[in-house]
Every structure is written in structure tokens, then in C-alpha cells.
Design a protein that fits this description.
The chain is elongated. A 6-stranded antiparallel sheet has the order 1-6-5-4-3-2, sandwiched between helices. The protein is of the alpha+beta class. It contains 13 helices and 6 strands. It has helices at about 10-20, 35-50, 50-60, 65-70, 75-95, 135-140, 145-155, 170-180, 220-225, 240-245, 260-275, 285-295, 300-310; strands at about 160-165, 185-190, 195-205, 210-215, 230-235, 245-255. Helices cover about 45% and strands about 15% of the residues.
Length: about 300
């Protein structure tokens, strides 16, 4: 079957060839977008309030809204000029003020505190000081050995409670190291799998005579950050440092967090060995603390575990 060929007249072909581009209507109107954006908006506002404007014009004895606009033209221009001037003045005045200063850093705790001082620092709400555990007036009348015995006896009844006595020299070294290295990690050996769990510790200083240490699973801290829940919280009270030369430590283990009281005691012992090291010993532990705080890539978990095993 042959296809039928259509013939195009020659005059039609010549007309199409003479107009290669799209067909343009000569009567098409081109509007200025800037004119539409300004004048149409004004017309819509006038139409919206036309009844009120006509009422206002009649009250002024005028015939139309256009006459009212002419009468108020000078006042409208004055209001526009005032608004522009106020805005520029406000921006200039704002630029004269410096930006808000950063939040003040917390004051580092003192190594010594006097119980006879008349002006006592404010204590944060919810923070339990040593006076909530012991009668300080009666405790100051006892020798250090009896104070240590009473402190241990007070926490002996709770299976999830921790307690320890820190001599003044040890407490001072722990505090000084904690101010330089407030965060660290410690290994917890696990005999069942022959490995070790890594736990994250963080110091805080809520009051001048109180230091708090929170222990958290490192895996949970990496997942939740500051919203992670610690499994053990330890508080060191230094109210008796100046009078009796000792600091009292107490802590609590949260049940159901995968850490027993024995595990928490091991972590506290490691903390004392790492943070309470003297200048003449345990140079490797101090170096590990420094490397962790500086984010040194040469820090190795294997070396940390080896140092922790030497504590036993």
C-alpha cells in the first residue's frame, strides 16, 4: 500500500520561510513588573478600605477619596520619612553595643575550706553536703580515726553504697589532676570473656567543698552524650580538710545498669591510682591522662588496660 503524498502550495511555503521564528502578535501588551508590584498593591488596599476612606472624606468636607489623599499627602510623606529615620537610628544604636559576653566559667573549687567561716558559699539545690550525713559540730570534736570508723559504719548497711577516706595529700593531688583532666576512661576487666569494658568518667565541681564524679558506660555516652545516665555517682566532701586533714567520699551504684558494687569499687580504685599519682611515680598513667585530654591519636586502649592491671 502506497502512502499518499501531500503537496504544499508554493505561496504557503514562501510565507513560512519568511517567518522562521515564532509568530508574534503586534497588539500584545508588555507590562512593567515593577509598576504592577507597587500600583496594584496600592489599588487593592484602596479598594479594601474605600468605604472608610469615603466616610472620612465626607467628614472632612471633601468630595472624593482622591481629594482626601491630596490633603493627607504631606502627612503621609512625613510619616514615611520618620519611619525610615527611626529604623536607621535603631540599627546604628544597636551596632554600638558589643555582643553579649560568653557565660562565665565555673569557679574552681578550693583545696581547703574552713568550717569556722562566717560566710558560707551558696549550695546548689539538690546537692547533699557533708552536713546532711554527719553533725559537723560533733564530728569536729572527734579524732580522725573515729571519724573514719563512723563514716564507714554509716555506709556499711547498704549493698550498693560506696565509701572511702582520702588523706589531705591524696585529695589535693586528685583535685589538682581533676581540674586539668576532668574527663577520662577506665577499663573494667571481665573474666567471662577475658576482655574489658571501657567506662567514661567525668568530674564536676558543684560547690567549693564538693567534688562529684560520674561513671557511665562508654558505649552509652558515645550514643547519648550528655543525656546518658551514669551507673555510679561518687561525691567527695572536703569540709574537714582544714580541721582533720581528711576528705570523706561516698557513692551510690544504680541497680540494673550492668555494674555491681564490686565493679564500682574497682573503678574508684583505678581513679585514685590514676588521679592521685605522685610526681615521682606512675609517669605512664600521667602520660595517658595527658594524651587523652589532648586527643592524642597515639593513645592506646591496650596500654591503658595494661596499666590498670598493675593496680591489682
Amino acid at each position: 500500500m502506497y502512502a499518499r503524498r501531500l503537496s504544499v502550495p508554493s505561496h504557503v511555503y514562501r510565507q513560512c520561510a519568511s517567518r522562521p521564528g515564532p509568530f508574534q502578535r503586534r497588539w500584545a501588551r508588555v507590562d512593567d513588573v515593577r509598576f504592577l508590584a507597587t500600583h496594584q498593591q496600592g489599588d487593592r488596599i484602596t479598594d479594601k478600605y474605600r468605604d472608610k476612606l469615603q466616610r472620612k472624606a465626607r467628614e472632612q468636607g471633601l468630595q472624593s477619596v482622591d481629594e482626601l489623599r491630596i490633603v493627607y499627602k504631606a502627612r503621609i510623606q512625613e510619616q514615611k520619612t520618620k519611619t525610615t529615620t527611626d529604623s536607621s537610628v535603631t540599627q546604628e544604636a544597636t551596632s554600638l553595643f558589643p555582643p553579649s559576653p560568653p557565660a562565665p566559667t565555673p569557679v574552681e573549687p578550693h583545696t581547703k575550706s574552713s568550717s569556722s567561716s562566717t560566710s558560707k558559699p551558696s549550695t546548689p539545690l539538690g546537692l547533699r553536703t557533708l552536713s546532711s550525713y554527719l553533725d559537723l559540730d560533733k564530728t569536729l570534736a572527734l579524732p580522725p580515726k573515729e571519724i573514719a570508723y563512723i563514716w564507714r559504719l554509716r555506709h556499711a548497711s547498704s549493698p550498693t553504697s560506696l565509701c572511702a577516706i582520702l588523706p589531705s595529700a591524696t585529695y589535693s593531688r586528685v583535685l589538682e589532676t581533676a581540674c586539668r583532666h576532668p574527663q577520662f576512661i577506665l577499663p573494667l576487666p571481665r573474666e567471662d570473656n577475658g576482655g574489658a569494658e571501657i567506662h567514661f568518667l567525668q568530674f564536676s565541681f558543684p560547690a567549693s567543698d564538693t567534688v562529684t564524679v560520674m561513671f557511665t558506660h562508654l558505649s552509652e555516652y558515645k550514643l547519648r552524650g550528655e543525656f546518658s545516665q551514669p551507673h555510679t555517682t561518687v561525691t567527695i566532701h572536703s569540709e574537714l580538710i582544714s580541721e582533720k586533714g581528711l576528705a570523706l567520699m561516698q557513692g551510690q551504684v544504680v541497680e540494673g545498669r550492668g555494674v555491681s558494687a564490686e565493679d564500682a569499687r574497682w573503678l574508684v580504685l583505678c581513679l585514685q591510682k590514676f588521679y592521685g599519682a605522685t610526681d615521682n611515680e606512675d609517669a605512664c598513667r600521667k602520660r595517658l591522662l595527658q594524651m587523652f585530654s589532648e586527643g592524642d591519636t597515639a593513645f592506646r586502649i591496650e596500654e591503658l588496660i595494661e596499666e590498670a592491671e598493675k593496680i591489682v
